[in-house]
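Fold Annotation — chain and its backbone

Encoding — discrete vocabulary of local shapes
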Amino acid sequence: MEKKKSTRKRPVQKAEQPAAQVPFITEFDQYLFGQGVHYEIYKKMGAHAAEKDGEKGVYFAVWAPNAKSVCLTGDFNGWDPEATPMERLEPLGIYEIFVPGMQEGDLYKYAVTGQEGKTVLKSDPYGFSAELRPGTASKVASIDGFKWADTRWMEALKTFQFKKEPMAIYELHPGSWKKHEPKDEDDPGYYNFRELAPELVAYLKKMGYTHVELIGVAEHPFDGSWGYQVTGYYAPTSRYGTPKDFMYFVNYLHKNKIGVILDWVPAHFPRDEHGLANFDGYPLYEYGDPKKGEHPDWGTKIFDYGRNEIKNFLIANALYWLTEYHVDGLRIDAVASMLYLDYGKQDGQWIANQYGENKNLEAIEFFRHLNSIVHQRRPGAVMIAEESTAWPQVTGSPVDGGLGFDLKWNMGWMNDFLEYQKCDPYFRKYNHNKMTFSMTYAYSENYVLVISHDEVVHLKGSMIEKMPGNEDQKFANLKAAYAFMLGHPGKKLLFMGQEFGQRREWSEARELDWDCLKDPRHQGLSEFVSQLLTLYRKYPALYAMDDTWDGFQWINANDGDRSIFSFVRYSPSKRNNLLFVVNFTPVDRPDYRVGVPKKKRYTKILSTNAPEIGGAGDTTPEIYKSEKSECDGQPFSFEYPLPAYGVAVFKF
């Protein structure tokens, strides 16, 4: 018999809160974390506003598998290390607790007791914020609710083709770019990220940079580490404000079409007691054997890349910055120290891999996993390796045995370039190959040409002070150097202050020497760098074929006796190609003749004689017609009076 349908209306059921919005740890969370693939684990671990049984509070979760017990301590319980024990979840040893009444801004730590009975107060590895140093407590903070206004930028980023686009990167330490007058001896004078954003954007747009690379954003206890010894991997440092202040900063730069790259440090972490070292009474985040788990030169700990939960911690952290803060890329610090088991170690201080080699196979797999998942989840994000050796295929695909990075810092070019620039001009003819050798490997990887903070500290001298000669010659030489850097294949990076020739070495403790710009020579150098970056963004010849010999041609790579370099950069359309001529001696060449590949009109678009950049004034013609006259192995040529330390760029 057919059952009659009921005519009674069913009560409307309220939709349950989606599981993804509930912070409490589930068995599935533990499974994914144990497998190393919980890419949003930071939404479960750490401190999160929550509601339980109708009460609002904060839910805490921390991984400490070797601990005898873990308690939560903080302002809420008078920092009593035993008053608030946490419950252990198996099988991974995650400790959790919900504390009613706690709220954003409250300080806390984990009181972790090891198997031997010693209790240590630990900051939260997944904490979103921390108190200002010298305090080391974590701070309850929310990363939800910020109103982003960079949708157009983020959509465009998904199809960003870094190989075909200009990247002029300004490396910046936020705490020392500019400072306020200190209120007292304890006031460091830091700009908040919200204050920094408009001033920095105005400067970057005036100069012509496309990206900023920030160092020292993740929380770190010691200013002098410059942020390379991190204790709070998920916490933007409180030196410059809250997590949402940093979101504002990124949002503001994106609205002004400037990309944001972060320095990221998965290579090592400090021994500070409140940090990751011996987190639960035993090595947890680091390798257990000191021969694998410690950097003897740096006095730091090395992450255990063979442990799933540690790889998860790091890979989720990379995705956290790229996703939650809309960062456009990561520059990974000290990659070589991760790849080589014997990096910075003497015989007997390291352990070979299973094949008897010095390669860290676990770190190799980590990089391939990291880069693959980042490119899958954040298309367009740029992953940059600071790798200082000849390790093959750093920017090669993992499918082909590469590490999967997009770009690699060209440290070889940088070292040769700076050694050449420091030479007395008389001896440069004996060092000519230092400026040409990089082209023998320029297309083996996708490179960034860098003059980073590391090159202007520790008595190495600032860029202007590296240059030989008298004052005027120093500035002329540096302009020639920057012009050569612009013309050489590869993306560009310059550390802050070097664009205007700061004389003192950089120090994190003071702001840049902006008063230098009152000197016309410094102002002229700044204007010249701006002109270079304007050319760089305007002409695809300077960036669109950085990865192929089709984009470059030496005109004369062998003019060592005169220390003159000439070359062509070609555009994909073969229109608006650029001829560079750079003289690295203080000798005028009034009868200089340069060979060219085609019979065309060559229009001068840049000259170091221009008065607005401190030149003596340019009275030479703007347009030159080549004639059939062999020179430099080319069928055509034209004469151009090349001044001392002169640079000329011609369009054809």
Notes: The chain has 14 helices and 28 strands. The chain has a mean pLDDT of 94. The CA atoms of residues 484 and 522 lie 19 Å apart.
